[in-house]
Amino acid sequence: MSHIYHVRVYYEDTDMGGIVYHANYLRYIERARSDWVRKLGNDQNAMRDAGLVWVVRRIEADYLATAKFEDELVIETDVVSLSGARLTMSQLVRRGETEVFRATVTAVCMNAEGRPVRLPAEIRALM
């Protein structure tokens, strides 16, 4: 099941050329992932209080087209795989029918000591 998140490009998101600065796509997809996790019912504050956090381990990204000030973008997030402590997602940013940015993101569940730990069953069930 895909999660859809909408974002509008603001002036502050653009570079001197008037296009979205490359690092801002990482911010957009992070917002989409956070929104997705929240809507699944995974309370990240409660998770942190229990000594667990999500950490991005890897991002593989492709910049496919430009987005500009005032563009409305749609970010689609899908689970690619879920195993032990690892969650891999595909994220696609579109402007209308045009694919602008695509990323594969791998996140790992870690404990307070910074070690990977198996995802709790209740979180796995949400995904």
From TrEMBL:
Database matches in Gene3D superfamilies: Hotdog Thioesterase
Record keyword Hydrolase present: yes
InterPro entries listed in its UniProt record: 4-hydroxybenzoyl-CoA_TE, HB-CoA_thioesterase_AS, HotDog_dom_sf, Tol-Pal_acyl-CoA_thioesterase, YbgC/YbaW
Pfam families given in the database record: 4HBT_2
Keyword list, A-Z: Hydrolase
Family the UniProt entry places it in: Belongs to the 4-hydroxybenzoyl-CoA thioesterase family.
UniProt name for this protein: Tol-pal system-associated acyl-CoA thioesterase
Species name: Ruegeria sp. PrR005
Taxonomic lineage from the root: Bacteria, Pseudomonadati, Pseudomonadota, Alphaproteobacteria, Rhodobacterales
